[in-house]
């Protein structure tokens, strides 16, 4: 349990640090080779923790300490999700291992969504609403001529 919590907290702290760096870095500043290598190493390290360690620690906790095994069937309280194999009406047997795998999949889905959001935030840093509106109006052809009639 401690390893899972530590890995999630470490992922959150490193991601928050990246967000703070994104907000501080000027949009027009070019990256040096050293900054690019350090950034790639940082992103790889955070991805390793988020996509490798966090789901592994969850599966280890669920299967070892909480005994989420394939032979343990979710029956629930009452007859809401009681499967037919146990005398209920629900047509699917849901095992506890299935629940732990679904939770591990949810970790991946959340981390991918957050990673895409951080990429978007980094790529659009420094853009204001006026600059976006002006860029949408001033479209030019590949020859440099405006495609929209300037009023």
Describe this structure in words.
With 151 residues, this protein is an all-alpha fold. The protein has one domain. It has 4 helices and no strands. The chain has helices at 2-24, 33-65, 96-123, 129-137. Helix 1 runs antiparallel to helix 2 and helix 2 runs antiparallel to helix 3 (96-123). The radius of gyration is 24 Å and the shape is elongated. The chain starts with a helix and ends in a 14-residue tail after the last helix. The relative contact order is 0.11. The model has no long low-confidence stretch (mean pLDDT 85).
Helix count from the secondary structure assignment: 4
Beta-strand share of residues: under 5%
Biggest sheet overview: none
**What does the overall shape look like?**
elongated
Tell me the radius of gyration: 24 Å
Helix percent reads 55-70%
Span between termini: 64 Å
What structural class results from the helix and strand content? mainly alpha
Number of strands: 0
């Amino acid at each position: 349990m401690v390893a899972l919590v530590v890995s999630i907290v470490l992922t959150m702290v490193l991601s928050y640090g990246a967000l703070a760096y994104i907000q501080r870095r000027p949009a027009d500043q070019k990256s040096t080779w050293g900054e690019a290598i350090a950034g790639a190493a940082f992103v790889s390290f955070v991805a390793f923790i988020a996509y490798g360690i966090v789901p592994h620690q969850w599966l280890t906790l669920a299967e070892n300490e909480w005994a989420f095994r394939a032979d343990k069937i979710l029956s629930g309280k009452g007859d809401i999700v009681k499967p037919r194999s146990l005398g209920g009406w629900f047509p699917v047997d849901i095992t506890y291992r299935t629940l732990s795998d679904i939770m591990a999949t949810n970790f991946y889905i959340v981390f991918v969504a957050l990673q895409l959001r951080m990429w978007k935030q980094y790529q659009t840093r420094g853009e204001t609403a006026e600059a976006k509106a002006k860029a949408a109006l001033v479209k030019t052809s590949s020859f440099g001529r405006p495609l929209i009639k300037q009023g």
